[in-house]
């Protein structure tokens, strides 16, 4: 029985793309965990410019309250409360739970230290911004932005078929990204990342003084904080889907392309016969 023909190895990812990809992965890991440490200092989200007892603008809250069976955690979103004891709000083993929005296992540092969390968060935030700027310039120069990421009309027309193929875990290994990949990556690079940076800057008192209109455009400082948190959740969801697709599409080939730049594509139709 003849062995199936394997497609050729091509150079798919440039050094700039590979370095940026892994730098973002590290930066986002530390940003997420240090961000949860910062959020623990005040685990409530609002809409508007200000918050406090005189305002009724809470949209989400993670907290704890003592009941007959001990300390119970809850998560409340738009007035609907969910029991999240042991996961959010009240964490730790039963009988010795502590009131804490996110458990120490998912925060940096693991202990309560807002100052340390802010130091880690700001360092990796600027690393993300710097890498994003370098990547954008390099991608404009080498054509990666135009060639591989900006969706074309053909991509839009093929999107329904591409979505169905992904739902069926039927993957095509081509020279360029598929329609769904382009839209997903473009959403992260051109929407989520800039939104994270803009909302992060809008929460900075120094930036508020220098560029006061930024906070107004985003709907107020508390609204910016809420958008920042929601965007973080969207990036976590993207990461979960991204890793799932990498594992399903062939992890060795996918990881090799982001380590060496080499990617094995499907054989041409005439080569499959």
Could you tell me the mean pLDDT?
A: 87
Cα separation of the termini: 13 Å
Q: Compute the CA-based radius of gyration.
A: 22 Å
Count of distinct structural domains: 2
Helix count equals 9
The H-and-E topology, N to C, reads as EHEEEEEEHHHHHHHHE
Helix share, percent: 40-55%
Which structural class do you get from the secondary structure elements?
Answer: alpha+beta
State the total count of DSSP E strands.
8
What's the CATH superfamily of the largest domain, by name? Transmembrane di-heme cytochromes, Chain C
User: Which fold name is given in CATH as the topology of the largest domain?
Assistant: Fumarate Reductase Cytochrome B subunit
Major β-sheet strand ordering:
2-3-4-5
CATH architecture of the largest domain: Up-down Bundle
Largest sheet: 4 strands, antiparallel
Contiguous low-pLDDT stretches (5 residues minimum) are: none
Class of the largest domain in CATH? Answer: Mainly Alpha
- Beta percentage is 5-15%
Q: What overall form do the CA principal axes indicate? A: globular
Supply the key terms.
Fumarate Reductase Cytochrome B subunit; 2 domains; 4-stranded antiparallel beta sheet; 9 helices; 14% strand
